[in-house]
């Protein structure tokens, strides 16, 4: 069992100067019983090394971006090379064009693209563009889908589809929340009701086409097609939040995998190769609402910065190689099959959900198809599982709502070692 003395000491120091000791609340261990989060010192390939000298097999993958493993030589090289040529210009560069073309080749529904610096910014801007284009204010989202921390999307579900949202965070004015309507994922009738109720006030319906924020949850057959039909019949746009899903399951977006296309798409994470990035894009006529061509304003000192462009290009060059996703799928299946065999062997009340290299273990015997079901899973059992893993050298997100993300750096041996750890946890801690 690992000890974490140095992590604990550093966390005390951190709490003295960094609010709550973390720069993003999901990094704290609050959801798994508290205590100091492990402080990492360095990362290489599939591994993390903490400040106490412990090694972990990493499946957090920085909440998704690190799909090629840490410190991938090709991305490292691109960053070093670019930093010698300057990392921020504030002028147009050829790199931006090359990168935008590369993304559009893989995701043709993004007829026009803009780069920003985070998923939050990308989503926030698609909402502004949709509002500008439709001249309407309200947005419909799905319960449990996370779309960053801008005001409007930090709104919880009302108690019914015809109910307006209330803020999920202090500091978000009620007036802002009034423009967000939340309905359950995979529930087309609730969407129909909401559209019938709010009609021509609805600018857009926004969705994670494959959910990554209450575990990996796929849409029911036909669900996304129906969203398109219902929204478009109402004169509303469809926005896909592909911050997690773009380049996650294939060389392209979830929209390309499923063959259903939105009007606007927000992206982030993987496309930056680990550097800060966001991007949004979509139909040309809609995108032309954005300055300097149109009246909707979006800007950024760091937007399209050469460092992120170079890292992102290098990342996509790695991902476009043949067999990358078949290999992620093969290893993902091996991990999932192994975990399911252990669930069975030790009689653990759990089941898994996986698509290619993204996996969730839900501590319930029910199949999870919406947020309510994910919320109803056993948080205490998850906390025990998480603590068992982290004290034996497997790092995952400290939340029952997050996925495990495999990378191209994981090997068969890493999966076998991970399964041995899971077995040890089920056998001794459950
Ligand atoms: N949308 C989705 C689907 C996300 O998962 C996230 C982040 N987890 C965001 C938006 C926000 O992205 P960022 O943290 O880069 O602002």
Report on this model:
The longest helix is centred in the last third of the chain and has 23 residues. This protein folds into two domains: 175 residues, Alpha-Beta Complex (Aspartate Aminotransferase, domain 1), CATH 3.90.1150.10; 247 residues, 3-Layer(aba) Sandwich (Aspartate Aminotransferase, domain 2), CATH 3.40.640.10. 37% of the residues lie in helices and 15% in strands. The strands form four sheets. A seven-stranded mixed sheet has the order 4-12-11-10-9-5-8, sandwiched between helices. Helix 3 runs parallel beside helix 10. With 430 residues, it is α/β, with parallel strands linked by helices. The chain starts with a helix and ends with a helix. It binds 4'-deoxy-4'-aminopyridoxal-5'-phosphate. 4'-deoxy-4'-aminopyridoxal-5'-phosphate binds next to helix 4.
How would you summarize what this structure contains?
This protein is an alpha/beta fold.
């Amino acid at each position: 069992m690992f000890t974490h003395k140095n992590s604990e000491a550093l966390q005390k120091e951190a709490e003295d100067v960094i609010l709550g000791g973390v720069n993003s609340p999901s990094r704290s261990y609050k959801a798994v019983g508290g205590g100091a989060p492990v402080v990492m010192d360095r990362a290489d390939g599939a591994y993390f090394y903490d400040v106490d000298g412990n090694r972990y097999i990493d499946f957090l993958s920085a909440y998704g971006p690190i799909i090629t493993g840490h410190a991938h030589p090709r991305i490292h090289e691109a960053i070093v090379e670019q930093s010698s040529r300057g990392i921020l210009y504030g002028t147009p560069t050829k790199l931006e064009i090359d990168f935008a073309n590369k993304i559009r080749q893989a995701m043709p529904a993004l007829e026009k693209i803009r780069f920003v610096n985070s998923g939050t910014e990308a989503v926030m801007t698609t909402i502004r563009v949709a509002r500008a284009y439709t001249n309407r204010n309200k947005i419909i989202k799905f319960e449990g889908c996370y779309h960053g921390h801008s005001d409007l999307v930090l709104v919880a579900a009302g108690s019914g589809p015809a109910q307006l949202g209330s803020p999920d965070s202090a500091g978000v004015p009620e007036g802002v929340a009034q423009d967000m309507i939340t309905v359950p994922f995979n529930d087309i009738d609730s969407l129909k009701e909401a559209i019938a109720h709010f009609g021509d006030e609805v600018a857009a319906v926004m969705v994670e086409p494959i959910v990554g924020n209450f575990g990996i949850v796929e849409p029911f057959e036909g669900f996304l097609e129906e969203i398109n039909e219902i929204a478009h019949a109402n004169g509303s746009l469809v926005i896909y939040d592909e911050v997690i899903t773009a380049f996650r399951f294939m060389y392209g977006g979830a929209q390309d995998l499923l063959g259903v296309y939105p009007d606007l798409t927000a992206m982030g994470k993987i496309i930056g190769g680990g550097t800060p990035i966001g991007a949004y894009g979509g139909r040309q006529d809609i995108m032309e609402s954005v300055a300097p061509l149109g009246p909707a304003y979006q800007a950024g000192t760091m937007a399209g910065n050469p460092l992120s462009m170079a890292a992102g290009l290098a990342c996509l060059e790695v991902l476009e190689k043949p067999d990358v996703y078949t290999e992620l799928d093969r290893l993902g299946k091996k991990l999932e099959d192994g975990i399911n065999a252990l669930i069975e062997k030790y009689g653990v009340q759990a089941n898994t959900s996986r698509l290619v290299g993204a996996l969730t273990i839900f501590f319930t015997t029910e199949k999870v198809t919406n947020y309510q079901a994910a919320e109803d899973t056993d948080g205490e059992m998850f906390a025990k599982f998480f603590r068992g893993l982290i004290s034996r050298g497997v790092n995952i997100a400290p939340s029952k709502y997050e996925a495990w993300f495999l990378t191209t750096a994981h090997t068969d041996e890493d999966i076998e070692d991970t399964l041995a750890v899971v077995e040890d946890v089920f056998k001794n801690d459950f």
